Amino acid sequence: MTVEAPVIGESDALVFFGATGDLAYKKIFPTLYAMTKRGTLGVPVIGVAFSNWSLDDLKKRAHDSITEHHEGGIDDKKAFETLLDSLHYIDGDYAKRQTFVALAEQLQDTGASKPAHYLAIPPSMFPVVVEHLGTSGCAKDSRVIVEKPFGRDLASARELNRVLHTVFPESSVFRIDHYLGKEPVENVLYFRFANSFLEPIWNRNYIESVQITMAEDFGVQGRGKFYEEVGALRDVVQNHMLQVTALLAMEPPVGGTQEALRDEKEKVFRAMRPLQPTDLVRGQFLGYRDEDGVAADSDVETFAAVRVHVDSWRWGGVPFFIRAGKELPITATEVVVRLRRPPQQVFPEEQVDPDDTNYLRFRLGPDTVAIALGVRDKLAGESFVGHPVELYVCTEEADEMEPYERLLGDAMEGNSLLFAREDGVEAAWRVVDRVLTDHGHAHPYEAKTWGPAEASALLPEGEYWHDPQP
Q: In sequence order, what are the residues at sequence separation of 6 or more whose Cβ sits closer than 8 angstroms to the Cβ of residue 100?
């Protein structure tokens, strides 16, 4: 069943399910406060949860959340009071119709007719909530914002899409990947298509390989039970890292519309070759099994390295190497696009180190962002001997706007560019689907190292992983 897409305009209320949960406490209340300070949240905010709470309890939760998790705490009392005045609360079981009758009444009382429903709840509850939103009339002229993970594999992602589309048209579905809301990630897209000098070399004729590293210097932070069900492949590779790959590999869009940009990004996912077991190396940091909620014989990966091939005219033969892991030496995400060597060695230098070849480097945070070009420059003196240097295009502190602030604002305005589309979600799951279950064991690695040595076997002879520096 396909639901006809309405013309909604800007949402006039935000309903968020899971208002008493951990995500709301750590991310959503600080985001709502920041939006209120910036003047971008001027609508009723209706929290829904099943916790036997009152509105006063929710307001206290908001106070504690912002005090603890917003940088600077409550530094604008007027904005905080404005946020509290906008808050409403419905305490009820998601499985009961009466909860949604109460929601419909609350929306009517506030004068809202085009709400955005944000599902900050476990995916297992999506079908129940979506169905009740439809039968209660709350879904009319509304949007739904869906928190990741969006499925556990290809089959479950397809089923979630089917459930969503029984009530909401695709144009009203906003699948959040908070990583796409980061300013440095958006800058990759902008830098590629706002500068003409890149296009002539941005292809298999000049690019040798692409490496993407997402390193975290911490472990599972008390979420052992959650990580046992997810692992690094599902947690960040299938979504965050493949999304960055698509931004690097996509073709220039025809026209400047949001859908034209998304069309080209989704084409990359379709061009990605499904991973084989030989394309994946898994690792687990020593000490992970001591975490609460982790099995004593757990084989869940806290590190994953993959080799991705994009079978297109532009990228045929260019491998994309992706790795992501916990308990690595630093926290940083970095892309290195390594260019081919000159066809001849003009100057009689000794063998040049692989890291001394030309490259383009994108530092995507979290604390600093940078775009740099790696080149060779002649050392002063009579001999033609060079050394590697970096030419910085830009280097700056990370953006002050948090990803959730940008994403919630965009979703309420109907701006879909930074959200995953149905076909892209399913195509990305298709890439990793086989190796979710068909893989070798997780290799142990010491904390504060760059993962298991076996990950180097994915790289061609003579190449090694580029380790981001502090």
A: 132, 133, 135, 136, 138
The upper half-sphere exposure of residue 393, i.e. CA atoms within 13 Å in the direction of its Cβ, equals: 17
Q: Tell me if 157 sits within 8 A of 426, measured CB to CB.
A: yes
Distance of CA 319 to the CA centre of its chain: 22
Cα 44 from Cα 110, distance rounded (Å):
7
Catalytic residues: 240
pTM of the complete model: 0.89
Amino acid identity at 60: K
Per residue in 11-62, pLDDT tens? Answer: 999 999 999 998 899 999 999 999 999 999 999 999 999 999 999 999 999 9
| Residue range 246-294, pLDDT digits in tens | 999 999 988 777 888 889 999 999 999 999 999 999 999 999 999 999 9
Distances, alpha carbon 17 to alpha carbons 120, 187, 348, in Å: 6, 31, 66
Token digits for 91?
């305490």
